[in-house]
Design goal:
heterodimer, A: mainly alpha, MetI-like fold, 86% helix, flat, B: alpha/beta, 10 strands
């Protein structure tokens, strides 16, 4: 098989499976006639009406803003806190207990208190909540990534007088970046979960809110449409991050391939 | 500190002990020597004699336990700007995320230079090692010998007066090694740089240097200082066929051989003594 043919076949296989699943779903829902499982075609029509036109700005945009802001804050904080902790043994001794304690906290346990403390039904509480739980995978991966840097790399920097901010920017950050990205991927899927959770708990807008309202009013087609949308959002956001990672860490893939030989 | 002697670099009664108490390892016993401006000095010794430790102390990366290193009359306590180090493991000392250009540029960023000066230094250094064409490659896209040339270019662009080289060619093949040796001799002229070169290869030490320093086994001391009176430019075939070369390499070889035999004898004696005590 030529390389081109191989790629075409791979893409065809990737598309064929979901198409087959969707067809099976449609067939089964037509057969079943169960109001709890509306037809796929009904869900898709609902999806188009709800999300693609009328309510995109009303509900999807706020959700995306919350994910974006919460995740963005977590990335910045995770790196800004993680690098000094990765470099300092005493810093880690002082901080690790607290990090591990908060990390072990199940998010729903903090949801009520976050609503009371940041008593707002709008963005502040949601962004803070998303950022807080997205912080830990990035923070821990940054610390690990920095600790894992080859001592020879630091020695080189030291011998050439590279220190302070230059050392962080040119040596520490790029060396730890592959692992920081691993943390970011974990955090991004967490961000979607937290978004749904906070919006489902208290909100007047967002995808999670639509989910809640359609459940309460027993409108099953919009509910299914919301579920499809949430899955799609998670998938597309991850895809976007992977594309960014591929660009930023192109050197890492090449280097690993070269050193594996 | 006194500035007597007028040597460019002086190592005075340097010693280095790792750990303390019963677990202490005496890596360097007492080492003193001096290097003059534009001299090429090679340091050889039996394996495990603390050559790398010595070089790291000289370069200000390790703090010696006793004695000190004096560069142009002032004590070295941190890596001085006048020194550049070329490590043995180019694969670890070059940054895989940076292009060849940015690797060479890295130590220049904090120097007070204009953009165009930096650019010129980088291009000049890469030109000197014959890698101009590969300036936008990543180091891992190059062969081992080429990567070590990038490391040499990085050291040269830093414009040191002393180049410290720690077994730089230990992990390249023999052919490449010869080429790199000649390259170092050439850039030494072009950049008018003093070189302190650590190696375990006896031929290499005699071929490259004005002077060979032979070390003892650990705790290391200076065994002998040998002047190499072979004219420059040197040639891989002609120089190595000279009777002086053959004589010197034989002499250095015998010195090191004798050193390598000794620790085993000492160990045997020590064991015998212990046994005698317990009996």
């Amino acid at each position: 098989m030529t390389r081109r043919a191989y790629h075409s076949a791979a893409i065809a296989a990737e598309i064929a499976v979901p198409v087959a699943i969707l067809l099976a779903w449609q067939w089964w829902t037509v057969q079943a006639q169960d109001p709890k499982f509306p037809r796929l075609s009904t869900i898709l029509v609902e999806f188009r009406d709800l999300w693609l036109f009328s309510q995109f700005e009303l509900h999807v945009v706020p959700s995306l803003i919350r994910i974006g802001a919460g995740f963005g804050i977590a990335v910045v904080l995770g790196i800004v806190l993680g690098i000094p902790l990765g470099l300092s043994r005493w810093g880690r001794i002082a901080a690790m207990v607290h990090i591990e304690w908060w990390r072990a906290m199940p998010p729903p346990a903090l949801l009520p208190i976050s609503v009371i403390l940041l008593h707002s039904i709008e963005n502040r509480q949601k962004i803070a909540f998303i950022a807080f739980f997205c912080l830990f995978p990035i923070l821990l991966n940054t610390i690990d990534g920095v600790r894992g840097i080859d001592p020879a790399t630091f020695e080189t920097a030291q011998s050439y007088g590279v220190r302070g901010f230059e050392r962080i920017r040119r040596i520490v950050l790029p060396a730890a970046l592959p692992q920081i990205f691993a943390g970011m991927r974990t955090s991004l899927s967490l961000a979607v979960i937290m978004m749904v959770l906070t919006e489902y708990f208290s909100s007047t807008s967002g995808v999670g809110y639509v989910l809640l309202i359609s459940k309460n009013t027993l409108q099953l087609a919009p509910m299914w449409a919301a579920i499809v949308l949430i899955g799609l959002l998670g998938y597309l956001l991850n895809l976007l991050l992977v594309l960014v990672e591929r660009r930023v860490l192109a050197w890492h893939r090449g280097w690993r391939a070269a050193t594996a030989q | 500190m006194s500035t007597d002697g007028g040597h460019l670099l002086e190592i005075r009664n340097l010693s280095k002990t790792y750990g303390s108490g019963a677990k202490a390892t005496h890596a360097i016993g007492d080492v003193s020597f001096a290097v003059d401006d534009r001299e090429f000095v090679c340091v050889v010794g039996p394996s495990g004699c603390g050559k790398t430790t010595l070089l790291k102390c000289v370069g200000g990366l390790l703090r010696p336990t006793g004695g000190h290193v004096v560069l142009r009359g002032s004590r070295v306590t941190a890596p001085p700007e006048e020194m550049a180090l070329v490590f043995q493991e180019y694969g670890r000392s070059l940054m895989p995320w940076a292009s060849v250009r940015n690797n060479v540029l890295l130590p220049l960023r904090h120097k007070k230079l204009s953009r165009s000066e930096r650019k010129a230094l980088v291009e000049e250094a890469l030109g000197a090692v014959g890698l101009t064409r590969f300036i936008d490659h990543y180091p891992w896209q190059l062969s081992g010998g080429m990567q070590q040339r990038v490391a040499i270019a990085r050291a040269l662009a830093y414009q040191p007066s002393i180049l410290l080289m720690d077994e730089p060619f230990a992990s390249v093949d023999a052919q490449t090694r010869g080429d790199l040796e000649d390259l170092v001799l050439r850039v030494r002229e072009e950049y008018a740089v003093t070189i302190l070169f650590v190696t375990h290869d006896i031929d290499e030490s005699v071929y490259l240097s004005d002077r060979v320093i032979v070390l003892t086994h650990a705790p290391t001391e200076v065994k002998e200082l040998i002047d190499v009176d072979i004219p420059f430019p040197r040639d891989q075939i002609a120089t190595k066929a000279l009777p002086e070369f053959t004589h010197l390499r034989g002499h250095v070889y015998r010195l090191i051989k004798r050193e390598q035999a000794q620790p085993e004898q000492q160990l045997a004696t020590a064991t015998a003594v212990t046994k005698g005590d317990s009996a």
